[in-house]
Amino acid sequence: MMNQSGLQFNEDQMLKIVDRLGRKRSWKQALAVVHWVYSDKKRKHLRSRFVYTKLLSVLGFARRHEEALQIFYQMLGDRQLYPDMAAYHSVAVTLGQAGFLKELLKVIERMRQKPTKLIKTLRQKNWDPVLEPDVVVYNAILNACVPSRQWKAVSWVFIELRKNGLRPNGATYGLAMEVMLESGKYDRVYEFFRKMKSSGEAPKAITYKVLVRALWRENKIEEAVEAVRDMEQKGVIGTGSVYYELACCLCNNGRWREAMLEASSPS
């Protein structure tokens, strides 16, 4: 059927096919199409880094971390497909969401290494695809640290950011707070919240949710209520989960009337 479609399977067509399959959550079909098209000797020269990067995105969205890693290493072994920053972003975010910290650190090592085997076989000896991690990649590391509670790695990430002249963004501080929350380092949760505000980054709803949960775990009920009132004054939107968190906190401490009011607050 694919052969009879009349398609040339050029880059633009392949991007559209993989994108549509991804939107339908048909990651297996996307993987199969890319493999089938580029396995054909007549179309091998049409292999596209952008198509493979789109496939990485589709696999990441489907939470297919192992398959994404396999495609990524396939790209590393092919000059025509060699990953650019967009590909590194995609695989880093995917591995970060999965909590695959060791695999992510290996990816960063490869990012900084010259592919000597590939360079030896090329006419262009000055080709240098070496890249340095940016904020997106470092944020992915923090994300990977959440389930494994690797709280000591948070300081390393901030040191690396500073060393490379990179500015932490709101997601950086928010993820650092999540790592500290899961690690039971509640003082550090509050510390990163203060740093976030002093840096000029506006806390989002998820940030306040983490803050409220930390205060709840320390039985600081009034402080949790004050945090939500502060959120309201800042005009933060999309806060239904925060009110739910506060309602649970109040209900757990016998203040169910207040909890019902918070649970019915508009989000």
TrEMBL record:
Show the PANTHER family listed in the entry: OS01G0674700 PROTEIN (PTHR46935), PENTACOTRIPEPTIDE-REPEAT REGION OF PRORP DOMAIN-CONTAINING PROTEIN (PTHR46935:SF2)
- Which Pfam families does the record associate with it? PPR (PF01535), PPR_2 (PF13041)
Q: Which organism is it from?
A: Brassica cretica
Give a GO biological-process term: chloroplast organization
- Transmembrane feature ranges: none
* InterPro entries listed in its UniProt record: DG1/EMB2279-like, PPR_rpt, TPR-like_helical_dom_sf
Top-level lineage group: Eukaryota
For this entry, the protein name equals Pentacotripeptide-repeat region of PRORP domain-containing protein
- State the UniProt keywords alphabetically: Repeat
Q: What is the lineage of its organism?
A: Eukaryota, Viridiplantae, Streptophyta, Embryophyta, Tracheophyta
